[in-house]
Automatic annotation (TrEMBL):
Residues 1-17 form the signal peptide. Its main location: membrane. Residues 205-222 form the Tyrosinase copper-binding domain. This is 5,6-dihydroxyindole-2-carboxylic acid oxidase. One of its GO terms (molecular function) is monooxygenase activity. Keywords: Copper, Disulfide bond, Glycoprotein, Melanin biosynthesis, Membrane, Metal-binding, Monooxygenase, Oxidoreductase, Signal, Transmembrane, Transmembrane helix, Zinc. Coiled coil: none annotated.
Amino acid sequence: MWKYVLLVILGAVLVRAQFPRECVTPEGLRSGQCCLSPRGLPNDECGSSTGRGQCVSISADRRPHGPQYPHDGRDDRERWPIRFFNRTCRCNGNFSGYNCGRCRHGFTGVNCDLRVSVVRRNVMQMTAAEKAAFINALDQAKRTVHPDLVIATRRYQEVFGPDGSTMQFENITIYNYFVWTHYYSVSKTFLGAGQQSFGGVDFSHEGPGFVTWHRFHLLQLERDMQDMLQDPTFALPYWNFAIGGSTCDICTDDLLGDRSTFDANGISSNSLFAEWRVICESVDDYDTLGTICNSECPVSRSRVTPGACPLSWSPSAAVCQKTKGHVLCPSGQS
Ligand SMILES: *[C@@H]1O[C@H](CO)[C@@H](O)[C@H](O)[C@H]1NC(C)=O
Ligand SMILES: *[C@@H]1O[C@H](CO)[C@@H](O)[C@H](O)[C@H]1NC(C)=O
Ligand SMILES: *[C@@H]1O[C@H](CO)[C@@H](O)[C@H](O)[C@H]1NC(C)=O
C-alpha cells in the first residue's frame, strides 16, 4: 500500500470529469463551449487578442471502439470530452491552461517567456526543514479547494439535476482532484441501476497514453501546488523505493507517517496523514447507484477490516483491481 501511495505522491499517477467552475452552468454546458478569458483580461476568450490562444472545435477520433469495449454511447468518457464540451481553448507557445491564462510547466512571467528550473530531488536527501515544508505543502493541497476546477458527481444525462438546472458538480481540493482524475479514468462503465457495471475496460492503464500518463498526473499536481504556494520552482521530490528494500523507509513521521502505536492499521498520530481522509471510498455504490463520490474514510496503512469504515461498503478485491494503487483504494488491497 505505501509503495502505491508513494508512487502517487512522489514518483509516478486521464480522462477527466472535471471542468472549469465557470463553464458548468446550464447555459455553458448546453452550448458545448468552454472558452474562458484569462483572469484580468475580460472578454478575451482564450486570450486570443494577445496571442495566447484561440477557441477551437475539438475533433475526437471517430473510429469504432475495439472489441474489448462493446458499449458504444454508454460512457461519458468515450471520445472525451465531446459529451460535455466540443469547443475549448487551444493555447499557443508557452501558454497553457483551460483559458490560456497559465504558463506551460517550466515557464513563468507575464508572457510566459522566463524559464524556471524545477529540480526534482531525492526525498531522503532533503533536510528536516525541507521535508517538513514538503509534507506541509501536501497537507495544504489536501485542504485547499481547487481554485478553478470542479468535478461532475453524476453522469452527463443526470448532470443537470432533477430540475434541469441544479448542476451536479462539486468543489474538490487540489490533492483530491489529483486522486480523482486518476480514479475517473479507470472506473467502470455504469450501465444503469441494478445492472452490473462493465469493468472490462480501463481508459488509462489500457489506453495509448499509458507510459506517460502517471507522469502527467504528477506534473498536474506539481503545477497546481506551484500556483497554490505561489512558487513556480516548487517540485515534488522523488523516492527511490529500491533503497529501503522491503522496509518502508519513508514511513516515518517526518515523511509519510509511521505506524500507529494503538492501531496496527493506523497511521501514527504524530503524522499529519493521520488526519487525512480517503475520498470516494464507496466505489461499489458508484458501480451500482451511479453516484460518483459519496464518502470519506481515514487513510490507513494496511488492509481495512470490515466495519472500520463507518459506511456499509465491502472491500472487495474486484473493486480494488480498478482503483489499485491510489489513495482511493481501501488500504492494503494494492
Ligand atoms: C457541440 O455541442 C453542442 C452542445 O452539446 C451541440 O449543440 C453542437 O451540435 C455540437 N457541435 C458539433 C459540431 O458537434
Ligand atoms: C518559450 O519561452 C522561451 C524562453 O523565452 C522561448 O525561447 C521560446 O521560444 C518560447 N516558446 C514558444 C513556443 O513560444
Ligand atoms: C466552491 O469553491 C468556490 C471557490 O472557492 C466558492 O466560491 C464556492 O462557494 C464553493 N462552492 C461550494 C458549494 O462550496
